[in-house]
Write a structure and sequence with these properties.
heterodimer, A: alpha+beta, 6-stranded mixed β-sheet, globular, B: alpha+beta, two-stranded antiparallel ribbon, 2 helices, 5 strands
Chain lengths: 629, 79
């Protein structure tokens, strides 16, 4: 019998052999719930450390949690997991949109993809049937044209498509996978892995049900969560104006708190006059409509229109980090160019966060004379040159000329160029990192210690009161809790903006965990209280940490900030002089490893800790590889 | 009848989930069992809403579920 809350099947696709098989979801979901939890277990168990990220043997997993495709609010997310092209450790990215729910209605909770197709293909999923379809005619197309073409060939505008653009095809490290043309699973080079498999897209259309174990209890849980959301003012702001609607209200504190590094991180504070030109109310007139992901009661993604001029464009997307990637990082204050850049990355299948890091680095190399027009195909990489940013995005996606030099990420580019450019190549464990981490200490600590490397959607926490976000106190504990909470979100398929249930702040709360435990238990019939759920979150986090130790060889020295942020202070603004205190960082690491029961000297997990988490087999593999302290 | 306002709709499809919950006797979610449809044109962001003849105005429910679960005020019961 099909389990409540699930489609019931995991699809396995070997692209080399063109072999498609199935196995029951509950083989993994009883213990790891779904989404990222199931992906992390399969990846750890089945991927050999000798496999390189772009080898055919690498695995690419798409996982949808049990709450997706139901009335549970905020539940649309797809977790995409693989071996990261940047770090060689665990790669994990996550997106919303409408694909996840459709994949479930088409009959599948997870897809486990291995091998490399001889010629480009896309995977078609429909009501329990899976088929590889020739995608020769789609290769080279943008994500937008790919969706148009698949919908047209199926003669069905409700088909949902997730896939790559030219950047993924060309195995550019900052390539992402996009759902519905706009929702990017960015980071870890997941798009490059998909491209290396000659897999252009997955398309789904389904009419299969998701059944409910305890319907009345589930609806009560939905109503309780919805009521909580409606009590919160941020929900109304999102709904009305999208993300920047919120931004315009909390306005300058967010900008001043150092999230948006300026000029490749030379500073974390931007001229307020420039902020005004690209933030909040200035951006608002370009918004035609706000759109929601599946099952989302607040909706945050704006449909943007630049009606005329050199940056004429129309499409879905403008995000918090767009004003980092295409504004502060390259010191550009032209809103139309920034909107164009964002929508161009969507079309090309580039992750804006990742791509802008290597572009910002190139601009700084140009400033310092390490690169000249001869190297950059004649482009003048002077701060504020938004035309050059847009041209570089194209070159990057196609590995054309100077774009090819940048296409393997900032660490590789800096190693190629040398000349001291490594000093300001901002990466963590090899992953290009967009985040500003010097002001908000909990944000920084979470970003740096994340197993998915240099990413803010794991343990990173932020409070909006300066006395709290500047403080090192309790940071390890709060990050440790947020890691577990975020794992619950990713296992169930819930958006991080579920934080709308909580407060303005990005931090775990017992309230929200309780809502998710009740929703998941009543939907699936599993018995998941907050404590049990958080423990599973801890197990998943430890699986990924073990993957990193085994595959990436990371130790304590990989849990330090990029050199620039370790050695340089914020230069201006209300937090001028703010920096990462070295002693405090060491103390936080000791405390954090202690909370996890990891060895402070190596940063590795101990056998005792893994056994106590029920991960004895994981401990055995680390022991065999001599990766236990 | 249910009045629809596609201008306000943000395309989340919760109405479809809710409607299918009603039509399956509160047992499951399945948009193919929904009487209402949300369709979005990804070239223009235009959202289209429709309701077919299987709508029974949620007979037996306190209020039509698509209206209850719409977070955007895009649906109203016409009295």
């Amino acid at each position: 019998m099909k389990p409540h809350g699930y489609a019931g099947r995991i699809l396995r696709v070997d692209l080399t052999e063109e072999r498609i098989t199935e196995e029951p979801t509950m083989k993994y979901a009883e213990r790891y719930v779904g989404g990222r939890g199931v992906n992390a277990r399969v990846l750890f168990d089945e991927l050999s450390p000798s496999t390189m990220p772009l080898d055919p043997e690498n695995m690419l997993l798409f996982g949808v949690g049990p709450l997706v495709g139901t009335l549970s609010p905020f539940c649309s997310r797809v977790s995409i997991d693989t071996k990261s092209t940047f770090t060689g450790g665990v790669g994990s990215a996550n997106c919303g949109g409408h694909f996840g729910a459709e994949m479930k209605y088409a009959g599948y909770d997870s897809l486990v993809i291995t091998g490399r197709a001889e010629n480009p293909v896309y995977l078609w999923l429909s009501d329990g049937e899976a088929e590889l379809v020739d995608a020769g005619g789609l290769w080279g197309k943008t994500t937008w044209d790919t969706e148009r073409a698949i919908r047209s060939s199926r003669n069905d505008n409700e088909v949902r498509v997730i896939g790559i653009g030219p950047a993924g095809e060309n195995q550019v490290k900052s390539a992402c996978i996009l759902s519905d043309r706009a929702k990017a699973a960015g980071g870890s080079g997941v798009g490059a892995v998909m491209g290396s498999k000659n897999l252009k897209a997955v398309a789904a259309r389904g009419s299969l049900p998701v059944t409910v174990a305890e319907p009345e209890r589930f609806i009560e849980a939905v109503d309780a969560a919805r009521k909580k959301i409606e009590q919160f003012p941020k929900a109304k702001l999102y709904r009305k104006d999208g993300y920047y609607g919120v931004e315009s209200v909390y306005g300058s504190p967010a900008w001043e708190a150092g999230f948006r590094p300026v000029r490749n991180g030379q500073d974390d504070y931007w001229d307020p006059e420039k902020i005004k030109r690209v933030a909040g109310d200035t951006i608002k007139p370009y918004r035609k409509k706000i759109l929601a992901c599946f099952g989302c009661p607040v909706g945050c993604m704006p449909w943007m229109v630049v009606p005329d001029g050199p940056y004429k464009v129309e499409g879905e997307g403008w995000w918090n980090n767009s004003s980092n990637s295409f504004c502060t990082r390259v010191d550009c204050d032209n809103p139309e160019a920034a909107i164009k850049a964002h929508l161009l990355t969507n079309q090309l299948g580039l992750d804006g966060d990742n791509a802008s890091v290597v572009i910002g680095w190139a601009f700084e190399c140009y400033e310092k004379g390490l690169l000249t027009k001869k190297d950059t195909d004649g482009l003048e990489l002077t701060w504020g040159n938004h035309d050059a940013v847009i041209t570089l995005l194209e070159k990057l996606a196609y590995r054309e000329g100077f774009g090819g030099f940048l296409a393997d990420g900032v660490k590789t580019a800096a190693e190629r160029l040398g000349g001291g450019s490594e000093e300001f190549a901002v990466h963590i464990k090899g992953q290009d990192s967009v985040d500003g981490i010097r002001v908000s200490k909990g944000w920084g600590f979470g970003v740096v210690t994340s197993p998915a490397a240099g990413r803010h959607l794991r343990g990173a926490i932020h409070s909006f009161s300066p006395e709290r976000f500047l403080s090192y106190d309790d940071v390890p504990w709060r990050v440790y809790m947020q890691e577990q909470y975020k794992a619950i979100l990713d296992m169930t398929g819930t958006c991080l903006y579920n934080n709308g249930l909580l407060s303005w702040e990005t931090e775990a709360s017992g309230h929200a965990a309780h809502h998710l435990a009740e929703l998941t238990s009543s939907l699936t019939g599993m018995d998941l209280d907050v404590e049990r759920f958080m423990r599973i979150g801890l197990q998943v986090h430890n699986l990924e940490k073990a993957f990193n130790t085994l595959h990436g060889g990371f130790t304590r020295r990989d849990d330090y900030p990029p050199k620039r942020y370790w050695e340089e202070s914020v230069k201006s603004g209300p937090y001028a002089g703010e920096h990462i205190d070295h002693e405090e960082w060491e103390r936080m690491l000791d405390e954090y490893y202690g909370l996890h029961g990891w060895d402070p000297g190596t940063g590795w997990q101990t056998k005792e800790t893994l056994v106590s988490l029920g991960l004895t087999g994981v401990a055995d593999r680390l022991e065999a590889a001599e990766r236990l302290p | 009848m249910i009045l629809l306002d596609p201008q306000k709709c943000q395309g989340c499809r919760m109405c479809e989930s809710a409607c299918s919950f009603h039509h399956t006797g509160h047992r499951m979610f399945n948009p193919s069992r929904s009487s209402t449809r949300v369709s979005r044109d990804n070239d223009t962001a235009v959202v289209t809403l429709s309701i077919d003849s299987t709508c029974d105005l949620c007979e037996g429910e306190e209020t039509p579920l698509c209206v209850k679960y719409c977070a955007y005020g895009a649906r109203k019961v016409s009295r």
